[in-house]
Amino acid sequence: MIKKYSIANFHISAGWSDDDILKSTLSPYEMEFEGDADISVHLSYTENPIAAEFESAVKLSDNKYYYRDEFGNDVLIYYDNLSKTVISKVTFSPDYSLVDILAFDVKKLYDINSDYYLLNLFDNMMRYCMQMHSAFVFHSSAVGCREGGVVFSARSGTGKSTHTSLWQREFDDSYIINDDSPIIRYENGKGVFLCGTPWAGTTGINTNTVVPLKGIVFLERSEYNSIERISAFRAVKLFLEGISPAYNFEMYEKSLDTLNGVLSTTPAYVLKCNMEPEAAHIAREYIFNNN
Is the N end or the C end of the chain the one with fewer CB atoms within 10 Å? Predict the structure, then answer.
């Protein structure tokens, strides 16, 4: 079954089964559109061993490998160390407009729900596709309000979700765009946009919307509340900690071009804060009234 979605204003077509988890998670992003998709995804399952060129692969993590095949396609391999099995192979066309996912039938192998497995694969695939389409899936909690959108980034456990929940509580016009993995999209000549996605961490809170991005805020815990604007040079390192690392030169170069566009037009800040409502008021006042 072919499903059509709009995520961050990208038209996406996906061929897969109509499972309950996919329905509930992705249905807010379903949208019919004419013409070709920006990204077309095809999924197929197999019970047979998945072949992979490990001799030419680069190890990206404990269970993820990358190589470029003979046709110029980028290939990601997801490997289960316990069973010594390749559980999925994701192949990207050179322009990242076509994605083929070959997945081992994990329900038979592990007796687990394959819907969540598929969602995780789709999430991972989108992270890399976005970097080749002038966008980032950015680890942060994103809030929208009358003036636009703001992302709050920090290491896990610092209080991103706590801070954005303060905005919801303190400001009637505020809402959560995504509580874990929003997309930041740079469109040359149009601006930088903050976009909802179906993947939102443990809370699952997300909104299918696209708004102008007005600020990128890096959180630090502090007894007292203060905020300062930082240089793009300082923001680069902090920003890169919130995206998936590029696995080849082309993606790295594209990511830097996009990041340059984002940080040259969007102010970045460091907010040192506690969990009190004052933190949200100080942040909003400074972001929207001092720059």
Answer: N
Q: Sign of the CA dihedral 63, 243, 29, 74? A: negative
> How far from 198 is each of 20, 245, 285, CA to CA, in Å?
14, 21, 30
The gap between the terminal CA atoms of the chain, to the nearest Å, is: 48
DSSP 8-class letter at 30: B
Q: What is the rounded CA–CA span in Å between residue 274 and residue 159?
A: 9
Cα gap 210→212, rounded to integer Å: 7
pLDDT of residue 98: 97
What's this model's pTM, rounded to 2 decimal places? 0.94
Tell me how far apart the alpha carbons of residues 154 and 65 are, in angstroms, rounded to a whole number. Answer: 27
Last residue of a domain, which of 85, 107, 133?
133
Residues 74 and 196 in one domain: no
Distance separating alpha carbons of residues 235 and 264, to the nearest angstrom:
11
Taking only the tens place, the pLDDT of each residue in 187-216 is 998 999 999 999 988 888 999 999 999 999
Question: Is pLDDT larger for residue 171 or for residue 45?
Answer: 171
Shared-domain flag, residues 194 and 280? yes
How much is the CA Rg of the chain, to the nearest whole Å? 20
Q: What is the CATH number of the domain that holds 196?
A: 3.90.228.20
Identity of the amino acid at 66: Y
**Residue 218 to residue 230: CA distance in whole angstroms:** 10
For residue range 69-117, list pLDDT tens digits in order: 999 999 999 998 888 888 899 999 999 999 999 988 776 666 666 667 7
Q: How far is CA 132 from the centre of its chain?
A: 13
Q: Characterize 88-109 residue by residue with b for buried, 16 or more Cβ atoms within 10 angstroms of its Cβ, and e for exposed.
A: bbbbbeeebeebbbbbbebeee
